[in-house]
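Anyone opening a protein record will find just a pair of labelled lines. With that in mind, the following record should read easily:
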Amino acid sequence: MSTTGPRRPTLEQVAGAAGVSTSTASKVLNGRPGISRATRRRVEEAIESLGYAPTTGPRAGVAPLGVTVVFRTLADVYALRVLEGVVASAREQGIEVVVDVLDAGPPTGDAAPLSPAWIRRQAAGDRAGVVLVTTQPTVAQRDLLRSLGVPTVHIDPVNPMDDSTVSVGSTNFSGGVQATRHLLELGHRRIAFAGGAPEFLPSAERLQGYLSMVRAGDGQVDDALVRSRAHTFEAGLAIGDELLELPEPPTAVFAASDSIALGVLASAQRHGLRVPQDLSVVGFDDSSAAASAAPPLTTVRQPVVEMGRVALRTLLQLARGERVDSHHVQLSTALVVRESTAPPAG
């Protein structure tokens, strides 16, 4: 009696089920142009129904030639700094980096990042795996990545990750504590928080650090002082307007990113307030814009470039089948004091 398990579906079987040639099925799998949408759909359905998994790529013992990095957006300094770290580490390893962006335009069906066809191309190609930056895959997408053996590392995941996933981030809670403690030590008690999207885990962790320190430091925990919107200059400008037009405005603002903080600075200026004499502002990231702001921004430095480096190295470990030291790496933050913070007036 044979002791071998069931045979894996072949690309030829996929082609037969879809009623196309093997070369056409291969083109669909590898994202090649010149295939009609109807044909592409038939091949995709055949792949799904047969449970076909490619046998090529780094998981079959072939040395990876590159990695794929998926960003939610490249329209901020944070993303570019992460990419800087990934590229620097990849160059040291002699591999290439392919970048894809979720908000690069209208979805293009099978070519869209994290679509089933896109994931299968990562499995079939010469990629070590995928780095997802502030990107939250669906359960189905995560399951398909795992079932096809595509190593995946998350940087600043949107939602909490369990131990079946690997992530790299910074000590966001501690960073929130550091920023808020600095303002409390200067004498501020009415301290506001200007955050990103409430469901974005790093921003939520920074908020928790802020709240814990305000409560411990005899500050005022006032719901009117907590605003969350997005990690953008425009969001910071709007939040700043809301806060500064309160009957009792804050004397200081801790912003969950430098982009938000810069918006708050602009709001203070158009309200005729001086920073830091009338309002202190602390950011988070220590982007290049923080040091060149007017005034230079006090901020919490997170090692964004190093996060990219660590994510790339960790991905290669996973691709080689090695154990990683930790499934959830958190790199330390540090407060950088510049000229946007001072004791409150009066």
Summary: The CA atoms of residues 190 and 220 lie 6 Å apart. The radius of gyration is 24 Å. DSSP finds twelve helices and twelve strands in the chain.
